[in-house]
Amino acid sequence: MKPTLQKLFKNETFIASLLIFLTTVITYGVSIPELGYYHDDWFVLWSGHVRGAESIIPLFSTDRPFMGVVYSYVYRLLGDAVINWHLYALLWRFIGGLAFFWILRLIWPNHKYITTLMAVLFIVYPGFLSQPNANTKQNHLYGFGTALLSIALMLQAMKTNIRGWKIFCSVLSLALTANYLLIYEYMIGFEGTRLLLLGYALFQGGFRQFRSLLKEIFKRAWPYWLVTAGFLYWRVFIFEGSRNATDVSGLAGNYFGNFRYMSIRLFVETIKDFLDTSIFAWFVQPYQLFSTAPYSNLGFAFLIAGIIASLVLLYAFLFKKWWGADYNEADAPRLIKDFLWIGALVIVCAILPVILSDRQVELYDAYKSYGLHPIAGVVLFIAGIVLMFQPKFRSLVPIALIGISVSTQVLNADYWKPFWEYQRQMWWQLTWRAPDIKDDTLVMTYSSGGYNPQQDYEVWGPINLIYNPEPAETPIIQAEVLNSTTAYNVVGQDVINNYVRDIKLHRDFNNVLLISISPISSC
After folding, report:
1. Rounded to an integer, what distance in angstroms lies between the CA atom of residue 355 and that of residue 31?
2. Which residues have CB under 8 Å from 321's CB, separation 6+?
3. pLDDT of 423-437, one tens digit each?
4. How does residue 520 score in pLDDT terms, banded at 50, 70 and 90?
5. What is the chain's Cα-based Rg?
6. Among candidates 22, 34, 43, which has minimal Cα distance to 90?
7. CA 70/CA 72 separation, integer angstroms
8. Whole-angstrom Cα distance, residue 11 to residue 315?
9. How far apart are CA 47 and CA 410, in angstroms?
10. What phi, psi does 441 have (nearest 5°)?
11. Over the chain, what is the mean pLDDT?
């Protein structure tokens, strides 16, 4: 081995970063070839392909306008290729993990082994299971990653003595703060995380007097408060949202109109979501997936988990051999206390805006994404609990959690895979049975094979991309999902006009083509 390469592989930060990279790629990358498009992906794909990438901007003008701008440019870059979106989402999963790792190393630079294991746990945390829905959820991963990068850059600016680097980190940190707030408003709880970590870092740096600490926090945090205040002013007083979850005036009306119920709900849901994210996520979702998975899927999941666990054990061996002990036993009580209280407060900061906006964490719904942004707090909190164990168990518990989490993520991908295959089979069977479909036909679908579309755009999106991919302002072939409600529309021969965001739809239930398909094992 060349001296330069040998030196690189004996660099602990490089080895830790490589472990984080391999954990990300192996855990999520092995499933990518069999994953596809799902749910909300379809109306965006249809609009981008048929109306042009610029049409994605007004799609999100009613709730998150800036996200539409970013989404539009990402679509220009990635196009319609399925694998591009999954690799892009994977990239932001890795960037988020590196940003968290960076934060940990800036605050606890002397505890390298612990912070590396925490970063690995962060990557594979089983409370967020929407990674396979890559086209839609890359927005969440992008917002989440940039929020963490903003905090990391702020801390880096505080730690460095190089003026140019300090200015660069500060300016970029402020820009990323505005970016993530405009992407997802409910992630505003990261500003509470920012204050906690800033105050803790300053306390470590020697600001032990309460008054001097507050003064220094204000001195360093006021630019971020200004950015946040500007965002809130725009969101509350200027922007007019039409979605209930992002309509501030509508939410305010709910609180004023039913203050007692909403206050009780806020208290109860905060406790519930705290327990869901910090404790139950490690067991509820794994049990659900483990109990229903075929043996072959379980075997593959355990194999991937074994590979990741082996890499972690290899890192532990190299760390002990080359870099020695990570901390003295006398440090444990202080680390336990700090990890527990910081982690708990970070979780509360993350979930509180979600609950205030009349939403909540739902562990059984793999499509929901509210379990993503509390991950940093969850990992800190769990690290505090792990350090409470006897020293001989402190290495075993993280390995067990990593193994459970990796297996869960692999089994979760296995759960999503058939949905893509069913969709492909559905449209393949339709195209050879109906080579052409008349314009303005209302296609109603029902699948008996384990996957049935939930929303109309999951039908008219792919159908129009297949039959009418040429430029158009509205879908030429209309669609609905057959259920009890739409069955009544057929009986009543209704005519319905409505919108999916800014896409105008016209449904004439007098002109229906019913498709009932049972997916077959192969095409």
Report:
1. 33
2. none
3. 898 888 888 888 899
4. low
5. 25
6. 22
7. 5
8. 12
9. 31
10. -65, 140
11. 90
User: What SS3 class is residue 481?
Assistant: strand
Question: In a 10 Å sphere around its CB, with 0-12 CB exposed, 13-18 middle and 19+ buried, how is residue 351 labelled?
Answer: buried
Spatial separation of the C-alpha atoms in residues 427 and 422, rounded to whole Å: 9
Give the 3-state secondary structure of 72-127.
Answer: HHHHHHHCCCHHHHHHHHHHHHHHHHHHHHHHHHHHCCCCHHHHHHHHHHHHHCCC
Name which residue leads in pLDDT, 461 or 429.
461
The CA distance from 195 to 177, in Å, is 13
106, 5 contact by CB (below 8 A): no
Round to whole Å and give the CA distance between 38 and 132.
9
Tokens at residue 301, please? 């999941």
Give dist(CA 186, CA 105) in Å, integer: 27
Taking the C-alpha atoms of residue 55 and residue 73, their distance in angstroms, rounded to an integer, is 11
Q: What is the 3-state secondary structure (H, E, C) of 145-175?
A: HHHHHHHHHHHHHHHCCCHHHHHHHHHHHHH
Cα distance between residue 397 and residue 388, in whole Å: 11
Is there a contact between 217 and 195 (Cβ–Cβ < 8 Å)?
yes
Which distant-in-sequence residues (6+ apart) come within 8 Å of 151 by Cβ? 99, 103, 173, 190, 193, 194, 197
DSSP readout, 251-274?
HHHHHHHSHHHHHHHHHHHHHHHH
What does the alpha-carbon distance between residue 122 and residue 372 come to, in Å, rounded to a whole number?
Answer: 10
What is the SS3 assignment for 508? strand
514 SS3 class: strand
Tokens 């990358």 sit at which residue?
A: 29
C-alpha distances out from residue 23 to 19, 160, 400, 448, Å: 6, 30, 15, 37
- CA 131/CA 135 separation, integer angstroms: 9
pLDDT in tens, 498-518: 889 989 998 888 888 777 766
Place of tokens 């969850």: 378
Single-letter amino acid, residue 291: S
Nearest to 118 by CA among 352, 401, 325: 401
> Which of 266, 257, 258 has its CA nearest to residue 357?
266
Q: Using the 8-state DSSP alphabet, how is residue 47 labeled?
A: I
Q: Sign of the C-alpha dihedral, residues 63, 69, 74, 80? A: positive
% of the chain beyond a pLDDT of 90: 67
Which tokens belong to 86? 């999954």
Do the Cβ atoms of 518 and 429 come closer than 8 Å?
Answer: no
Q: Report residue 225 as tokens.
A: 């408060």
Rounded Cα distance, 477 and 382, in Å? 51
- pLDDT tens digits, one per residue of 338-380: 999 999 999 999 999 999 988 888 888 877 889 999 999 999 9
Cα(309)–Cα(481) distance, rounded to whole angstroms?
A: 44
Helix axes 12-29 and 112-124, enclosed angle (nearest 10): 10
Average pLDDT over residues 23-28: 97
Inter-CA distances, 132 with 26, 38, 143, 450, Å: 14, 9, 17, 18
CB 76 within 8 A of CB 94: no
